[in-house]
Structures are given as structure tokens and as C-alpha cells.
Amino acid sequence: MTFDRTVPGRRRFLRRSLAALAGGSGFFAVPASLSLLNAAWAQQADRGADYKALVCVFLLGGNDGHNLLVPRSNAEYAVYAHRRRGLTIPQQQLLPISPLSGAPHALGLHPAVPELAQLFETRALALVGSVGALLEPVSRQAYDQGSARLPPQLFSHNDQQDFWQNLEVRSPVESTPASGWGGRLADLVHAGHNPGATLAMNLSLAGSNPFQVGRTTQPLTVDTGPIRAVENDRDPAAAAAFEAFLAQPQVNLLADTYRRTIKGAIDDYRTLQAVLAAAPPLATVFPGPPAIGAPAADGFAYALGSQLRRAAELIAVREALGHRRQIFFCALGGFDTHDLQMTDQPQLLAGLSRALHAFYQATVDLRVADRVTTFAASEFGRSLTSNGDGSDHSWGNHLFVLGGAVEGRRVFGNIPDLALGSADFAGDGNLIPRVAVDQYGATLARWFGVDAASLPLLFPNLQAFGQSDLGFLRPG
Predict the structure, then answer these.
(1) What does the longest C-alpha to C-alpha distance in the chain come to?
(2) What start-end ranges are recorded for coiled-coil regions in this protein (predicted)?
(3) If you average pLDDT over every residue of the chain, what do you get?
(4) pLDDT in tens, 278-330
(5) What is the mean pLDDT of residues 257-278?
(6) Whole-angstrom Cα distance, residue 14 to residue 265?
(7) Which one-letter DSSP state was computed for residue 136?
């Protein structure tokens, strides 16, 4: 799955207008769990004038977490350097961090992320080690013997991006519509928490994605530039004729579904136009467009920062949109570092760090820092050993969570033993996750307001694991 931000304007309009249709088989089929979701809605309906938002930042390609979070103590660093060889970051360049808990030895962050290191030290950011796609706990012995039950196509970008976002093992003949756990979360809470909403609560700043597609709710893709509905400077009459056509119901079910989808998208963009135009500009300064010849990091900071800036703007107008709950999806590509990793990853991480720092500051300026939680995602990690100029697809990864409600300056999950023969790594060198995406997501969902009994509706593999709340978010 890729996100192309260079498509011409007309194609981009059609793509975003049809984004709901891509997952819109909910028009034609009713999932077996819909009655359960309806019952859960009733339980959630009286909860809350409070506001909360989740912001997913997906690092497309598989970020190398082994160089994001690095052992800094001499003995452990020596093992790291021996295993990584050409991918080793010099020990003296690591940014030291001082976790309050969860660290088995001294740790450091990649030198390209000073803003993230600062956020960690000021308790706004937590690290979560060894996270990955799991159906059940997996031991090294079971993996090496081939007896472990594993997610489908474990090292495939597209398959793992999909599984990370939907957590469903689907049969080729499955008739129930696919959905993502962010979409199922919207199914559960939208009616109860956003009764006066004028817009979908799931808002993507990075194109269509499986994560936000619900069984009964659909996301809206929002441009990071000027918001437009229908316009035709050369022939306004053609635009008017098109809208007149959209106002007329069609006999054919598919044609009418298409009509309603397009009309709904146009109405949504008009709502966005009006609401954003009336809002004061953000006080926070986000990374601007890169100058000619600027480092690649400037481009990455702008690419992600533009998405996060628009998310901050949508948070600022939440009351006008009737939103007490929002879920955002942002993405930054380029992390598939099979080669040139020591050149490319520092630029990617530097841009990521700057954009996230600006966004967190925006939530502070808007006085919602403790109401907005940003979490990292990536389809898989990368191999501990070098392939000569980079790293290959692997499994478990190290992630981070950012926000005022985060139990910051702490490490959660598992910091693996990097030594050869460690139980944390399979025989082929892949890091075996000790934290399932279901657990990671369930912790976010509990903070978002979902009760424990409803979690299995959102996270189908959760019951295979003993812990559903990892503790990296304070309740409230």
C-alpha cells in the first residue's frame, strides 16, 4: 500500500471522494457482530462531554527500530555493534535517555531525534519495545520448529500493513466486509460521543487506509492544502449540472450508492471549507516547505508536518464539527531501507522528530495535550544483521507513544537481548514480538473510553494474551 501525493488535482478529488466506497461494502452486508456493537453503543452513549483524539503516525516500509532505540551501556553496546556491523551508530553519538522504569540497562536514541529525546525526558513520550503482529504468544522454539501460528505473509509489506491495521485473518471467500481496528473503534464510540457530528470522526490526512474503515462508519480523507468541493472555473454550468445530477436518486442500487457517496463527500468538504475558513490560524509554527537543495530531512518534516498541522486544525475546530472523539491517520513513507540505510534513515527520523515535536507543541498551545495521544505504527521491524548496505524485513519493532496522558520517560514492553542465541530472536535473526498489536491498540482504546468487555469486539486476537492494558496511558 502506498500513498501518492503527486496525483493531478482531478484524480486526487475522485480518489478522496470515493475513499468511503473502497470500504463501502457495508452498504450491502450486515456483519454478524453488528448487534453486539449496537449493544455496546448503548452502554457508551451516556459517556462524555470530554474530548479525546488518537493520532496514528504510520512509518511505511518498516522502520529499523534497532537503531531508533539502542543499548548504551558498554557490554550491551558491544553486542549491538558486533551484530549490526555496518549499521552501527557510534556509541558517543547516541542521545542518552534516563528511563524511570522498564530499562534493563542504559539506553540511547538515534542522534537524529533530539526532539523526541527531549519529549521523553520531559515525560511526554514513552517507548514500547518489541511490538509486532501476533495471533498468539510465540516462543523461539515454536517459531524455529514451524509450529507457531503466525500472521499471514509475515514479511510482505502490503499484507502486514493490512494486518497491522485490521488484525483480521481473512479467508479468500470471506463475505463480511473488512474493517480496521480504528474503524471498529469509531463504530463503537461515534454515536455515543459525537451525537451532533457534522462529519466523520475518522479523518485521514494520508489517503485511504484499512485502519479507519469501519463496519458501519466510514472515514473521510482530508487534503493538507486548500479544501475544495466542486469547482470548474472554465465551465461553472458543468459543475452545477453535475451537482443537479447528484441530487437525483438513481434506480440502480450501485449507481445510487455511487451518487450518495460522491454527494456526501462534496457536502463534507463544504462543511470543512466553512469551518476551517472561520477558524483563527494556529499559533504553532510547523516545518515549512523545503528550500531548493535543502536536506531530505526538511522535505520529510514538511510532508508529515503538513498532515499533523491539518490534524491540529481539525482538533481546534472540534466543537464546530460536533466532535468529542476523533481519530486521525498520518503516514510517512521511505522506511524500506534495504540499502543506503545509514544515509536515508537519519533524514527520515530527523523529519519525523521535528514534525512530531511541532504537533505536540500545537496540542499544548490548544490546551488539549492531555486529550490527544499520538502513537507510532510500522508494518514490521528490520533485521538486526546488515545485508551489506541496509537491513531486510523482519518482525518485532520498537515504537513510541506521545501525549500529555502518556506515562512518559518510561519503557514498556520488552527490551530484547541482542546476543547470538537469545530467546528474543528466532534462528533466522528476526526479533520475536513480546507485545501484540492487539495489546498496544487495546491500551489506546481503554484510554479512549472503551470498557474492557467491549475490547474483544475491536481486537480479535486479544484474548490470547494475558494483559490487555500495557499501562503506558493514565486513565482519565
Answers:
(1) 73
(2) none
(3) 89
(4) 999 999 999 999 999 999 999 999 999 999 999 999 999 999 999 999 999 99
(5) 89
(6) 10
(7) S
Give the right CATH number for 9-464 from 1.10.3470, 1.10.10, 3.40.720, 3.40.50: 3.40.720
Q: How far is CA 79 from CA 99, 392, 419, in A?
A: 21, 19, 6
On whether the CB atoms of residues 401 and 393 are closer than 8 A, the answer is no
Distance between CA atoms of 53 and 370, rounded to whole angstroms? Answer: 10
Extract the runs of DSSP E, i.e. beta strands, from 84-184. 95-97, 107-109, 125-132
Q: What pLDDT is recorded for position 192?
A: 92
SS3 label, residue 27: helix
Q: What is the pLDDT of residues 354-387, one digit of tens each?
A: 999 999 999 999 999 999 999 999 999 999 999 9
Tell me: the pLDDT tens digits for 213-229?
A: 999 999 999 999 988 77
Q: What is the mean pLDDT of residues 457-464?
A: 96
pLDDT over threshold 90, residue 245: no
Determine the straight-line distance between the first and last CA of the chain, rounded to whole angstroms: 35
The distance of Cα 439 from the centroid of its chain, to the nearest Å, equals: 15
The sign of the dihedral angle between the CA atoms of 128, 133, 139, 141 is: negative
pLDDT surpasses 50 at 43: no
- C-alpha gyration radius of the chain: 22
- Helix, strand or coil, per DSSP, at residue 81: helix
Chain position carrying cell 537543495: 293
Is residue 356 within 8 A of residue 308, CB to CB? The reply is yes
Please state, in angstroms and as integers, the Cα–Cα distance from residue 2 to each residue in 59, 60, 65, 159, 162, following that order: 11, 8, 21, 12, 12
Q: What is the distance between the alpha carbons of residues 462 and 439, in angstroms, rounded to a whole number?
A: 6
d(CA 54, CA 18): 24
**Domains of the chain: which residue ranges?**
9-464
User: Shortest CA distance to 387 belongs to which of 67, 66, 90, 87?
Assistant: 87
Q: How far is residue 224's CA from residue 410's CA, in Å, rounded to a whole number?
A: 33
